[in-house]
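Progress report, Aim 2. The chain analyzed during this reporting quarter is listed below.
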Amino acid sequence: MKFKTEKIAIFGTSADPPSNGHKIILEELSKEYDLVISYASNNPSKIHKESLFFRSLLLKTLINNLKNKKIKFDQDISSPWAVTTIKKCKEKYLCNYIDFVIGSDLLKEIHKWRNIMQILKEVKLLIIPRENFPINPNNTDFITKNFGKYEISHLKIPKISSSMIRENHDYDGVPKSLISTIRVNNLYKQSNIDT
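Predicted structure tokens for the chain:
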């Protein structure tokens, strides 16, 4: 099924597990875009705690519980490579305008991304600042020197991340809608999950 949408944000994430930060990002993006498409992916530069199957299940559950028609879960466009995801999205959604959403933590490795020059031609990067990951001008200079476009988001995301949740076994940062799925599937360490 093909769609025609004017302004799309693509938000891929490892979602290992999805956090309240992911939830806030999705909700805030939906206020600025016609459609926000999210999916779980395998980041080639990360080691994932849970399988892509379970991470995508958790993200889909989070998105379904948001009950926001402007936020769509679409695992079909997922790829470890941004360039492939962008291509799939353009073909499926027939979109004129795509912002590819990344956290500031990914900026330091962007020059290593597969087909980065093609990515910079095809999308604008929307950079979401994350605490402890300042935006380095060398990285944004790389984007502009290679004729890419970017915008630094105004979003204020709480200091929470999937890695903090996993490392500290503190599940206060996990959306409540995911707790039962985590329990039933014996995902992550459950000792601190509220009953």
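The chain has one domain: 7-184. The beta strands are 7-13, 35-40, 71-73, 97-103, 124-128, 149-152. These observations will guide the mutagenesis work planned for the next reporting period.
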